[in-house]
Design a protein that fits this description.
Blueprint (H helix, E strand, L loop, with lengths): L2 E4 L5 H12 L3 E6 L6 H9 L5 E4 L5 H15 L4 E4 L5 E2 L7 H32 L3 E6 L12 H21 L4 E8 L12 E2 L11 H15 L11 H12 L6 E4 L1 H12 L2 H13 L7
Parallel strand pairs: 1-2, 1-4, 2-3, 4-6, 5-8, 6-7, 7-9
Helix pairs in contact: 1-2, 1-7, 3-4, 4-5
Length: about 290
């Protein structure tokens, strides 16, 4: 069984992965930025009849990152698996997203991931030399390969994660550490509901994208019952895949999860850019705004 560190466990994929992996017998350090939001995780863990080690870790605070890794080192002297899951999605067309909003998206989704990885690697290299089976699993998104309008900041952060992970995969192979990308499509997590982040200017009458933003919002609301439910498939599928990656003797670099994600990537590769754009705009904004 492995010693596992997971970021972003207050809800969604992080929460489900932590509970599932702990129930399978792994030693799981489930972390989150705000420990007052631990109740959902604890309820999920209790439902499965298991336990996790709960730690505070804010990917944007170096001290909290270092303290979490030091705690694991002190307890076990090893770290087999790092799952970089913490992040959020920022909605908004580029001109509606301020520099500070764009930078904040990159700080959490990309530079935060780098900070945790950098801090964990010395312990992981030691673990790999003694035990093997060591790997880093980075939760990316289909947006990192087939972005859509209105999510440019989020897509940029995930494209960065994609490039970094592929390079790191080659760099760490010499130490026997696998780096794996998980690329989900839409799943019923809170990224489009209670955890949604929207650029402050979005929807403003002064925005040149106001009608597109409103159409996009209507689309999301129709798919989430006005924000009451998550959008997409069962996220337990992603948690199950993460468990399979951990158990695999030779994991792949990339795993695309879900029919919708696979279709997006396939269409993006198959269709000319202008034709693909029309398909996207019709799907997101409706027929009236699909042309151009």
């Amino acid at each position: 069984m492995s010693v596992i560190l997971i970021t972003g466990c207050s809800s969604g994929l992080g929460m489900l992965s932590a509970a599932r992996l702990a129930a399978s017998g792994h030693t799981v350090y489930a972390t989150m930025r705000d420990l007052t939001k631990k109740e959902k995780l604890l309820a999920e863990v209790n439902k499965r009849g298991t336990t996790v080690h709960l730690l505070r870790l804010d990917v944007n605070e170096q001290d909290s990152v270092a303290e979490a890794v030091e705690c694991i080192d002190s307890d076990w002297g090893r770290l087999d698996i790092l799952i970089n899951n913490a992040g959020y999605g920022l909605g908004g067309f580029f001109e509606d997203v301020s520099d500070s909003e764009f930078r904040a998206q990159m700080e959490t989704n990309f530079f935060g991931l780098l900070a945790v990885t950098r801090e964990a690697l010395p312990l992981m290299r030691k673990t790999a030399s003694q035990h093997g089976g060591t790997r880093i699993i980075n939760i990316s998104s289909v947006q990192g390969r087939a972005p859509i309008p209105g999510l440019g900041a989020y897509a940029t952060s995930k494209w960065a994660v994609e490039g970094f992970s592929e390079a790191l995969n080659h760099e760490l192979a010499i130490f026997g550490i696998d780096v794996v990308l998980v690329e989900p499509g839409s799943y019923r997590t809170e990224i489009f509901t209670s955890n949604a982040h929207v650029a402050e200017r979005t929807g403003s009458d002064k925005s040149p994208y106001a009608r597109f933003s409103e159409a996009f919002k209507r689309k999301i609301d129709s798919m989430t019952d006005g924000g009451k439910i998550g959008m997409g498939d069962d996220p337990e599928v992603v948690a199950k895949l993460i468990e399979e990656i951990i158990e695999s003797k030779s994991p792949k670099l990339r795993y695309v999860v879900g029919r919708q994600a696979k279709m997006r990537i396939w269409l993006r590769a198959l269709l000319p850019t202008k034709q693909y754009r029309r398909v996207l705009r019709k799907a997101l904004f409706g027929s009236d705004l699909a042309e151009g």
